[in-house]
Amino acid sequence: MDLATLWFFIVAFFFVGYFVLDGFDFGVGMSLPFLGKDDVSRRQVINTIGPVWDLNETWVIVAGAVLFASFPEWYATLFSGFYLPLLLILLALILRGVSFEYRHQRDSVKWKAGFDRMIVIGSVVPALLWGVAFGNIVQGVAIDENHIYVGGFFALLNPYALLVGVTTLLLFFLHGVLFVALKTDGQVHEDAQKLAKKAAIPTILVAAATVIWTVAIAMGREAPLLWLVIGAGALAAVSLIAAVGLSMVRRDGWAFFSGMLTVLFAVVMLFSALFPYVMPSTIDPAYSLTIANASSTPYTLQIMSWTALIAMPLVLAYQAWTYWVFRKRVTRKSIEGAPAHA
């Protein structure tokens, strides 16, 4: 395996980490209207991700930086062509972060309700648009001979990309609900388990359609990793069904873990279907960006490899330590006994 191919999989690794971790953040935010029956329960839901949401979000910054350094052509075409949807994602993430920090600054019902709505919007928009973006990347977009996207914004809203977007939306929603069930007690815990059951069937049906369509795209492209596309899609389906089943028998920890595996295998499936391209062209296959023609120089990738070898274990260790420190449930009693700004 050459360095360019290795860094393709490292980019995939960081996006897997981002979608697994920030995915349940989005789901928790989207679940707020369904699980927050009063201010205490809303605080209980928000506090499940209070200590970790900003750490989870840094994964997308690292993923973007790694993409820029290892595949500058891919980065340039992606961020120029997908400028509007990526800008909307950025604004939504800012909106959500501001809401987490400012919600408790005033003891006003209207003030808190406004920021609660912003949390929901700031969670729905990225959950949907990230799926739309990756759906287009996998399917291919209108790239000309200069590696410039010429399709326009509305061309990105095609059936497959929208299907992938709805899939990520539902997967992240279920993922977040399972996390709330794991991290809370009392009425919020019970409501989260009921909500997971309601979300299960539409999530399974939409995800199954995405797996079938993605496999069809990979077969039409004669993808060299077709076996991995099919295998990852099948494992994602099994993990999703297992997550729902484990939630029904109240095995919250294993249900959430299965939800994590579902997101992991889903992202692996998308990257496997893409390989060896990074952005296929629908105008002419010769105009496509591939791992070979979009990557940095071997010397740059060599330096990055040594840096990653040192830094990545430290990052993973710190992330694991953070989750270990904040592993306890957020109980209703702890919220009722805390100041209103907590």
UniProtKB/TrEMBL annotation:
Q: Where are the transmembrane segments?
A: 6-24, 74-98, 119-139, 159-180, 200-219, 225-246, 253-279, 299-326
Q: How does it sit in the membrane?
A: Multi-pass membrane protein
- GO CC field: cytochrome complex; plasma membrane
Q: Does the keyword Cell membrane apply?
A: yes
Query: One Pfam family, short name please?
Result: Cyt_bd_oxida_II
Q: Which family does it belong to?
A: Belongs to the cytochrome ubiquinol oxidase subunit 2 family.
GO annotation (BP), single: aerobic electron transport chain
Its annotated compartments are:
Cell membrane
- Primary subcellular site in the record, as a coarse category: membrane
For molecular function, the Gene Ontology terms on record are: electron transfer activity; metal ion binding; oxidoreductase activity, acting on diphenols and related substances as donors, oxygen as acceptor
Q: Which UniProt keyword terms apply here?
A: Cell membrane, Electron transport, Heme, Iron, Membrane, Metal-binding, Transmembrane, Transmembrane helix, Transport
**Is Methyltransferase there in the keyword field?**
no
Highest taxon of the lineage:
Bacteria
Q: What is this protein called?
A: Cytochrome d ubiquinol oxidase subunit II
